[in-house]
Specification:
The relative contact order is 0.08. 74% of the residues lie in helices and 0% in strands. The longest helix has 23 residues. It has one domain. It is mainly α.
Length: 80
């Protein structure tokens, strides 16, 4: 398991790097990193355990066609 402080430290470093490595802004970068890490942790806690990934449009169309064929064959059997 990753240490919380290590996550904040890494995030602060990335913020410092992206800001052009300025001197004297370590406190601001640390606070920004702390807020970002806390936000991500909150999202993780509130997210449901099952992650649903959207299907590609082509797969949705194909599965829809399969479903329609199954319904049609089921209807034919039921009406016979």
């Amino acid at each position: 398991m990753v240490d919380f402080e290590e996550l904040v430290r890494t995030e602060a470093y990335l913020i410092w790097e992206s800001a052009g490595r300025p001197d004297g802004q370590d406190h601001e970068h640390w606070q920004m990193a702390l807020a970002r890490v806390n936000s991500r942790l909150q999202e993780t806690r509130t997210r449901k355990t099952a992650v649903v990934v959207p299907l590609a449009v082509s797969r949705v169309v194909l599965s829809s066609r399969k479903h329609k064929r199954r319904e049609a064959s089921t209807n034919r059997i039921a009406s016979a």
